[in-house]
Amino acid sequence: xxxxxxxxxxxxxxxxxxxxxxxxxxxxxxxxxxxxxxxxxxxxxxxxxxxxxxxxxxxxxxxxxxxxxxxxxxxxxxxxxxxxxxxxxxxxxxxxxxxxxxxxxxxxxxxxxxxxxxxxxxxxxxxxxxxxxxxxxxxxxxxxxxxxxxxxxxxxxxxxxxxxxxxxxxxxx
Amino acid sequence: xxxxxxxxxxxxxxxxxxxxxxxxxxxxxxxxxxxxxxxxxxxxxxxxxxxxxxxxxxxxxxxxxxxxxxxxxxxxxxxxxxxxxxxxxxxxxxxxxxxxxxxxxxxxxxxxxxxxxxxxxxxxxxxxxxxxxxxxxxxxxxxxxxxxxxxxxxxxxxxxxxxxxxxxxxxxxxxxxxxxxxxxxxxxxxxxxxxxxxxxxxxxxxxxxxxxxxxxxxxxxxxxxxxxxxxxxxxxxxxxxxxxxxxxxxxxxxxxxxxxxxxxxxxxxxxxxxxxxxxxxxxxxxxxxxxxxxxxxxxxxxxxxxxxxxxxxxxxxxxxxxxxxxxxxxxxxxxxxxxxxxxxxxxxxxxxxxxxxxxxxxxxxxxxxxxxxxxxxxxxxxxxxxxxxxxxxxxxxxxxxxxxxxxxxxxxxxxxxxxxxxxxxxxxxxxxxxxxxxxxxxxxxxxxxxxxxxxxxxxxxxxxxxxxxxxxxxxxxxxxxxxxxxxxxxxxxxxxxxxxxxxxxxxxxxxxxxxxxxxxxxxxxxxxxxxxxxxxxxxxxxxxxxxxxxxxxxxxxxxxxxxxxxxxxxxxxxxxxxxxxxxxxxxxxxxxxxxxxxxxxxxxxxxxxxxxxxxxxxxxxxxxxxxxxxxxxxxxxxxxxxxxxxxxxxxxxxxxxxxxxxxxxxxxxxxxxxxxxxxxxxxxxxxxxxxxxxxxxxxxxxxxxxxxxxxxxxxxxxxxxxxxxxxxxxxxxxxxxxxxxxxxxxxxxxxxxxxxxxxxxxxxxxxxxxxxxxxxxxxxxxxxxxxxxxxxxxx
Lengths: 173, 795
Ligand code: FES
Ligand code: FES
Fold this sequence. Notes:
The complex is a heterodimer of chains A (about 170) and B (about 800). Chain A is globular. Chain A starts with 16 loop residues before the first strand and ends with a helix. In chain A, strands 2-1-5-3-4 form a five-stranded mixed beta sheet, sandwiched between helices. Helix content of chain A is about 30%, strand content about 15%. The longest helix of chain A is centred in the C-terminal third of the chain and has 18 residues. Chain A is an alpha+beta fold and about 170 residues long. Chain B folds into three domains: about 170 residues, Aldehyde Oxidoreductase, domain 4; about 190 residues, Aldehyde Oxidoreductase, domain 3, CATH 3.90.1170; about 250 residues, Aldehyde oxidase/xanthine dehydrogenase, molybdopterin binding domain (Aldehyde Oxidoreductase, domain 4, 2-Layer Sandwich). Chain B is built from 19 helices and 34 strands. In chain B, strand 27 and strand 28 form a beta hairpin. Chains A and B meet through helix 2, helix 3, helix 4 and helix 5 of A and helix 1 and helix 17 of B. One FE2/S2 (inorganic) cluster binds next to loops of chain A.
């Protein structure tokens, strides 16, 4: 088990809170200012830079992670709100030897260009397929409508999710 | 032994999967904000809340008192280092930190460097700035009005708000064409201000090392070498002691070409503090202060004969550049390549007059997915074509057929002086019409209209000049716009390619290896592509204006050919023959007299290091600089069909067809990805995405709640056609470039479709975006709807 202690701000007399949060299956205790956003806990304190930040208004979805399995915009959640909860990020999707079918699907169907939106897209799509293994195109588009992409035009992202859904159903069968 | 099968090695024309994806799908990309250096501090910017005001005082004392703050920097302090102002890429100056006045909302006033970004933001809020408000000017009309306050009173001799006037074409010939016209068609419109808005905002990590004197800057830039040259000039540091690194870039679209005050401040702070300083812009900062695009007023007349031939066009353009003339574009062309407008049509006479104007808005005028103002050029062209066909009472497709340049006219000289290299325009148009089932749709449209349903079809046909550009005409800051490649083939036949251009998502690491594979027969998987680091990459002018494939791609082919020439000499030596007796097939040299005797390129590589001919310099590496002889001219036809709801003004896209002839496709999968991305931006601009200003100069569109981008839900599906291929005759592999075409040509297809659906109203124009309330107003008030700022109070 990794324990991360984030030093309170240098010289400042700022109150901090200690929280316990499980990230990608590993439980960590972290001491931090109550105002720190979950995205900053992940990126800065835990070094999980796969979760990106694209806006400040909960619109772009680049920061999407799963909190207790639900897609959540980590720029709009305080880290202390994750106390006692389970967070999953893109780094937890694959094992060293095996990619998640969604990751494969995005590469196979050219579902990414600059890659900046991709981790958030993957997390939203993962939540979708866990609840709905055989989504229609409209269901996919709706499930991803909180994630903006400026590069791809979405058509190949839809195909990537369909590719993964197909593969995942095949494995279950 | 026979030639290598190009399809099996990921060569030209194969839809090779992207190598960069492996890191991105794992969350292992390396974007600027992912970079953490030991001892790194964080910088935040205090921006002006007002559009135009004199700065009476700045008090930073409370900010300095915040624990964890290391530096509070104002313009006055920057001035002591001669850094309060900097040159722009268009030979103007731009404030780094405001000293005398603020000239647009969001302008940089001060920066704070602290232990973490939260502290830096807190401290920014404690800086007290006293402003004395001045009237804000938000349109060219206001700015050039008699008695308007002079925005750039910092510039000696500037006593109005005019930046330039620029004229091109044949005025007298055009006047004569108008005298002979049967019909004169007119159109005036505003192409709204738009922001490229990549999802990743701008940022930098500056690291000045006092011990070595070296400055390293990791930054979000599409043009690292231009930045190095600019930093050398701005910061007066020796160029060899500056290293600019562009790591993974989260989209650029032109936004990441200019040098912004944030970058410069992070550099200055790192020099002052002798510690690494990171600056990551927030989305609002990105949207209100960095390079916008468009914001142009276009007014034109077209002279026509009764039978539908265009005799001449006359165009007036007013470009709103904001507070500083900070376009990133070739020096010679004041308003970019706007004069490429109407290039695909056979028109004998044309004349263009353009003015550039300062206003109290963010500076820019960048090439947003665009080869320097060609987006405005082609949008205007196709809106004008639509209006003219209606004025003539002629079918939209037929009117274009009568005027498109014919295959036998290439190379074709346009009235503005461009030379179109090649194309099959009529064939592309017919492919598009067939795909949309043109005649059938017209019939359906008629029937639907009879039942009160409003269907419409919009056509946009266009070519654009890509690959700036030849050294006779193109330079930025005096540096000619060539590009470069350097290739090293290792002893075992694996290779390293370094290129002067830089990807922001287009997949250079994948496609540039394919060009080498095509030339040398080395499998693409055996070639690694590096770029973006000025210490290792050869000098290049960057990636924008679709110039990577036309220029750096050509350099890549040329360097591979140099390698092949040397390998041929080695092959002759290995085969104990003279070079003239040696033939090449992909991946292999062989003896003409006995083709079964040959050596592979890999065997030649090994011999280059171990068994070279006497007197030959060892090794197998080369570089090439490519100065393109002409622009490349891809052609495209975009057709959209829509249905407008007469009750609400909401319109839905029924179908979109895209026919792109971009010459030889290096990687068809990636080409299609570029087209779909471009079409999405085209849809965005026509339907929702724009920035405007109110009368006080407040930017409307400063975050993603106001600046609307389409999600997967709104974005329509696209049908792409690739059956027409006209290789560029002057490009080494016949490629033409594709990154922008759909964003350039697409908007007019959507707008023309909506205008077609409401043609019964007689309305000539609704300015983009075609928001439902604008369409509703046109339908119900039967009048043109302008989108020009300032926005009305009720909006
Ligand atoms: S960064 Fe969280 S929604 Fe944009
Ligand atoms: S791939 Fe660039 S934003 Fe989606």
